[in-house]
Amino acid sequence: MAALDEDSVFGARPAKPAAHVVGENVDALSVHELDARISLLGAEIERLQKARAEREATRLAAEQAFRR
Fold first, then answer.
1. What is the C-alpha separation between 30 and 27, in angstroms, rounded?
2. pTM across the whole model
3. What is the pLDDT of residues 3-22, one digit of tens each?
4. Exposed, middle or buried, 20 (CB in 10 Å: 0-12/13-18/19+)?
């Protein structure tokens, strides 16, 4: 009889999503892991910039509506 382990019983665990904590020690990370974090943070910066631009557009539209 084959030995049972968690993966054979429950299936493989899903991969943990990439995460980065600002100020975290990165000394133990490989170049590949650092590249992945840089990519992740770049995407997050783009998302935040888009959200900021949307808020600014809403604010400007409101200012225009109340100036009339």
1. 8
2. 0.64
3. 677 777 777 776 666 688 89
4. middle
- Residue 49 near residue 30, CB atoms below 8 Å: no
* Phi then psi dihedrals of residue 62, to 5 deg: -65, -40
- Six-digit token pair at 62? 């409101």
Domain boundaries, the chain: 29-68
Got the DSSP string for 1-42? -PPP-HHHHH-PPPPPPP---TT---TT--HHHHHHHHHHHH
Cα–Cα distance for residue pair 50/44, rounded to 1 Å: 10
